[in-house]
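Lesson 9: reading folded outputs for more than one chain in a single document. The general rule is that every protein is listed as its sequence immediately followed by its structure tokens, and records are never interleaved. Here is the first one.
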Amino acid sequence: MVLLKILTKVRAISGVDQVLPISEFHKYMSSVLKNGAALSVDVDALMDAVVYEPDLRSIHQMLYNGGLTHQPLNDKIDQLRWRKSKHEQDLMRETCRIGSESLNALLREGCEERNESNIVGFLDHQCRRRGADRLAYPPVVAAGNNANTIHYISSNKPIRKTDCVLVDAGCDLHGYVSDITRCFPISGRFSAVQRTLYDVLNDIQSQLLHYVQTVRPLRLNELYKHMVERMADSLSSIVFFRKDLSQKELIKECDRLCPHHVSHYLGMDVHDTPSIAKNIECPPGVIITVEPGIYIRPENTAVRNEFRGIGFRIEDDVLLTETGAEILTANCIRDPEDIELVMDS
């Protein structure tokens, strides 16, 4: 009776037509083998399960040594996960709200912290106290030149009073994650050089968000191309490079300055549905990130000396809709005037 209730509950939650207890697996698979059916299998999940659940090794052996025809299930699952249902969209709104409010709290209350690790702890507390289950991934808290390491997760270095801090963090709410990046001066005031570069990136982000809201069909690779073109124009206007460059040279340099894509799909994982290509049209219901970055390592001699050692990225989460796009992280403070105002309050 208890087992029947469990199976009924699993069927209701999952939407799967037929749910059987694991004790019947071998009997069921034997009948499938006799019928010569082809199965779709989440190979990665099975391999992980075999490591932690020795009882499942016989399942692995049956699939791979029993003459059973099988094909990867991952691509099919990604297709199902790619477009979010209304309920999923509501969950994403909430996880983005919590992530945004937690980063805003950091600007208001957490900037007395003088070590990257303290900010990690502060963000974890802020996300959980607002209802999140946990942080979505090991956050990047990178002060000064550390921000030029794209996936810097050491987050344990002292913060100097002249540093800008890059924070890439998100929260996990019932299996759905936010992914937000903001940069701010730990002193509460950007230096003139920091402000000049931040203004450029912030303007690029505004242009990219407008592009996402208005351009159809929307393809992520085209969005990246648009970012590089806007970056080339903007950096030329502030005499960023040490010498004049042709448009082709500018594009090449800007491609180096932002060595990651400007966007990825988001949902139940940070880099969600990885089998979905970035050169195809994105339909309504898809959630993406928009995250331009400019990273100038100290040894980059193509750039004027005063800009070297600065790394900035701004990242927002966006739901594509029938009429445009909804910026799910719009309430996360981004404009430099607002950053300084909040930190000064």
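And here is the second record, again sequence then tokens.
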Amino acid sequence: MIINGKSDEKIVDNNSITIEWPYDEKELYKIALNFFKENEGKAFHPSYDQRNMLVALTLQEKHGKFNQEKAIPLGALDFVGHDRRNAWISLNTISANEARQKFVQHLDNICPVFRSYLIAVRCDIEEKERKRKESEEMKRKKLEELEKCRVEEEARAKEEEKRQQYEKQKYLS
């Protein structure tokens, strides 16, 4: 819908990995961060600037906007630290939510293996969920069967008791 020349619709990137992931965004970020930590230098090799941006996004997500007063002073020769800090400062006021989204999208852009990894993780999660449901269903059926057996046993016991009382009455009469 367009009002006063402005659209109130959100533009959604159909290639966005967050749209394809059917689970919580925080869960997706945790998986992406874990993948980054475990596979950097193995499955993919980000450039210096790409790595600094990924680290800056994790800092933004964890700590929020860069605050000079809380920051630990950097040494004069800490070039990497200065570059990472500048990348963090450049993120300015993006929210933790946006930082998570950008981290996942950036990782997806620089590492083609990441999407395959996510598919494998999703399949694993779905398989675990399927097994959990099957297990619950089996437990439920077992409980129903036990309950049915218990009810039948109680009915048999009552029948036996009635039969014995009838026999006793018959014998006494």
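What the second record shows: The two ends are 93 Å apart (CA to CA).
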